[in-house]
Amino acid sequence: MFGLSGIKVKGDKVVWIVIVLLSLISLLVVYSATGSLAYKNKSGNTEYYLFKHGFILLFGFFLMYVTHNIRYTYFSKISILVILLAIPLLLITLMKGSNLNDASRWLALPGTSLTFQTSDFAKLALIMYVSRVLSQKQENINSIKEAFIPVVIPVVIVCALILPANFSTAAVLFTTCFVMMFVGRIPYKHLLSLLGMGIVAILIILTVGNFAPNVFPRFGTWMKRIETFRSTEKEDKGSNFQVDQSKIAIATGGTLGKGPGKSTQRNFLPHPYSDFIYAIIIEEYGLVFGVIIVLLYLILLFRGTRIATQSPKMFGSLLAFGCSFSMVFQAMINMAVATNLFPVTGQPLPMLSMGGTSIWFSSITIGIILSVSVGEKSKTELSETDTGKKEVTYA
After folding, report:
1. What percent of the chain has pLDDT over 90?
2. Are 340 and 247 in contact (CB under 8 A)?
3. Phi and psi dihedrals of 255, rounded to 5?
4. Cys-Cys with 120: which of 175, 180, 219, 361 at CB 3.0–4.6 Å?
């Protein structure tokens, strides 16, 4: 336990330090990247987005603080409830959610002007649920009926409901759950069968998308992004404006960058404060600073994995690992898009991109990781054997 501005915080100190650093960087870069947006929407009041983003981050830290004080085993108890809530929310979003670019991703919070992506809530709910089921089924982990099916069915349902509006989020979530199942000792043959079903599902989507495009309104966008990514500049010059501007930002930033607030590509990139904030970071602070950002996320993954390996209960291990992997995997995809190593996906950079409820859900995710790191090693959870080894119990 250590003090942070007079407040006692618990858990892994390194995780706290990484998140504080990412948040401070986020304030600086978002303030710079929203300059054009401020002149367009707020009559040049650049401080508006700075204070708005600052408030969102502060409230995120409040959520993180509250969450990290909750006993992590509590998340196992509510996991079934939250997954049962997430599925209908995804259905409502698909049918009646706010639509943008043929994608229904947002639901309005009753009585407010706030909207949130139900996929963010569903992602966290599914990680909790998969962690619970895998930890409880360890004695029958080789059984298809007892272990594999109870895990896979909710994964398929949730990912299928997210996919029509947000293919990349569905893919990230499916990959996260697949890796969790691997870590949770699901037999290789079952995982290979799941992978095979995933390939078949993609082939079906491709077929249906070509012959019945109305079924997947976003299908044309997905294919265009992939085709643009595969094409060369000569073959398809100027076809991907976002990536072209991102590459210009990175190239002109060089090793040490132009300096804080001196980005020029923020005036051309459609979303310099969210999807392509990593390009603005490199443009203003240089490639060296860009590498530091990557290292911060890798440190977060390392500490999350270390917390997982030290947790006395299987549920805590899987929960910490799943939350850590999900956030860092999303971050790597965002940075790969900005550097043209991956097709455009629309995934924000966790704790760095400007956002509202997305930052809050990321904060809760970090709070859960910290909660696992806090977990007291009581006699019912951990006992030392005569050889000094841990006796791990399943939650």
Report:
1. 51
2. yes
3. -80, -40
4. 361
Give the Cα separation of 395 and 393 in Å (integer): 7
State pLDDT tens for residues 271-324: 888 889 999 999 999 999 999 999 999 999 999 999 999 988 899 999 999 999
pTM for this entry: 0.88
Tell me the sheet residues that pair with 107: 116
Tokens 């970071």, located at residue: 281
Tokens of residue 116, six digits? 């949130």
Q: What is the Cα–Cα distance from 308 to 146, expressed in whole angstroms?
A: 24
With contact defined as beta carbons under 8 Å apart, do 338 and 279 qualify? Answer: yes
Assign 121 a pLDDT band (cuts: 50, 70, 90). very high
Task: Spell out the SS3 assignment of the chain.
Answer: CEEECCEEECCCHHHHHHHHHHHHHHHHHHHHHCHHHHHHHCCCCCHHHHHHHHHHHHHHHHHHHHHHCCCCHHHHHHHHHHHHHHHHHHHHHHHHCEEECCEEEEEECCCCCCEEEHHHHHHHHHHHHHHHHHHHCHHHCCCHHHHHHHHHHHHHHHHHHHCCCCHHHHHHHHHHHHHHHHHCCCCHHHHHHHHHHHHHHHHHHHHHHHHCCCCCCCHHHHHHHHHHHHCCCCCCCCCCHHHHHHHHHHHHHCCCCCCCCCCCHHHCCCCCCCCCHHHHHHHHHHHHHHHHHHHHHHHHHHHHHHHHHHCCEHHHHHHHHHHHHHHHHHHHHHHHHHCCCCCCCCCCCCCCCCCCHHHHHHHHHHHHHHHHHHCCCCCCCCCECCCCCECCECC
Strands 2-4 and 98-100: unpaired
Q: Is the pLDDT of residue 380 over 90?
A: no
What is d(CA 225, CA 277) in angstroms, rounded to the nearest whole number? 19
- As a whole number of angstroms, the distance between CA 46 and CA 311 comes to 45
pLDDT tens per residue across span 242-261: 888 888 999 999 888 899 88
